Amino acid sequence: MEEKILEVKNLVTQFTMGKRMVTAVNDVSFDLFRGHSLGIIGESGSGKSAMALSLMRLIMPPVGTTTGQGVLLEGNNILQLSPKEMEGIRGNRISMIFQEPMTSLNPVYTIGEQIMETIRLHQKVSSKDAKMRCLELLTLVGIPAPHQRISEYPHQLSGGMRQRVMIAIALACGPSVLIADEPTTALDVTTQAQIIDLIQKLQKETQMGIMLITHDLGVVAEVCDQVAVMYCGRIIEQGSVKEIFDTPLHPYTRALLDAIPPLTGGNRHRSHRLRTIDGIVPALSDLPIGCNFQDRCTRVKECCKSSKPLLEEVVPGHFVECFYPLHV
Q1: Fewer CB within 10 Å of terminal CB in the chain, N or C?
Q2: What CA–CA distance (Å, rounded) separates 54 from 31?
Q3: What is the distance, to the nearest Å, from the Cα of residue 145 to the centroid of all Cα atoms in its chain?
Q4: Helix H or strand E segment including 197
């Protein structure tokens, strides 16, 4: 039986906007299993990164609050932990590769110092042992000449190298769960492929669970077992990669897939136009009464404007939040 290492139950994240609280993550639930990958997709502003930061307990008052029935990491509800207790979990049992390594790495410390800081924070080892572990990690993530790189600063490395350093920091203590927030953003195609191959290789070796946040549906199809589609802070469709890509049930998911350029080259002859999704994502502070996707949906009906649909299992293992799902 597969081991459930992360169980998210009814997660809610709110940010303080003046005198109001705006809900960025709204009643999100999902499971992540050991050795498996969950892809989180959706347009910018759909709540993907806010959810990731919430799971890391990095959204705190007065900026915002994170509540819910529970976030169970290997059976331990981390929402109930004190900030001090969470320090022992974050970077140790659950780690995160942040979206932009140049702003995530400290420019005044060498990469060796930053990796060793994580090791010594969570493991009682000497400076010599921490340095040896640091060199092992740099080798593991494919950075050449690690003895030289350990003394270099972030600005001396390429974008791909900095991303590998972020992966090394995230893996320093052998986490059970790795959250990768747009790990290939702003990298060239070759480097993107190398980073994805590296993450897959490390997952096979360590059997960690991965939550991959990305706009690249091709990466999701290649790497992930399960997919969750987010819109306006909610998961509106969830299922296996095959089900989501072959038979999407939500009109929004179908529109995202239709926006992928074809490999046939038909677009060069202007015989095929990529589909766009009309309109924009509504502001989280001014969501409609009914379905959040109603103003952009081609299948909208009156009930969509007056009531909010619930996330329901339409076919075994395939959930959708829609009154009129496709293929049903």
Answers
A1: N
A2: 15
A3: 31
A4: helix 189-206
In degrees, to the nearest 5, what angle opens at C-alpha 87 toward C-alphas 85 and 88?
Answer: 70
Does the pLDDT at position 307 exceed 90?
Answer: yes
Is the pLDDT reported for residue 270 higher than 70? no
Secondary element (H or E) of residue 101: helix 101-104
Position of tokens 């972020």? 166
Closest CA to 3 of 72, 95, 80, 69: 72
For residue 202, what are the CA distances in angstroms to 170, 195, 261, 311? 12, 11, 30, 33
Q: Which pair of structure tokens corresponds to residue 28?
A: 């999100």
Evaluate if residue 126 carries a pLDDT over 70. Answer: yes
Integer Cα distance of 293 and 290 in angstroms = 9
pLDDT (tens digit per residue) in 66-101: 999 999 999 999 999 999 999 999 999 999 998 777
Q: Are 86 and 56 in contact (CB under 8 A)?
A: no
* Greatest CA separation for the chain: 68
Taking a C-beta distance cutoff of 8 angstroms, is the pair 318, 248 a contact?
Answer: no
- Give the number of other Cβ atoms within 10 Å of residue 14's Cβ: 20
Closest CA to 238 of 255, 253, 216: 253
Q: How far apart are CA 317 and CA 319, in angstroms?
A: 7
Secondary structure letter of residue 209 according to DSSP: E
CB 33 within 8 A of CB 4: yes
Q: Which two tokens stand for residue 316?
A: 């075994």
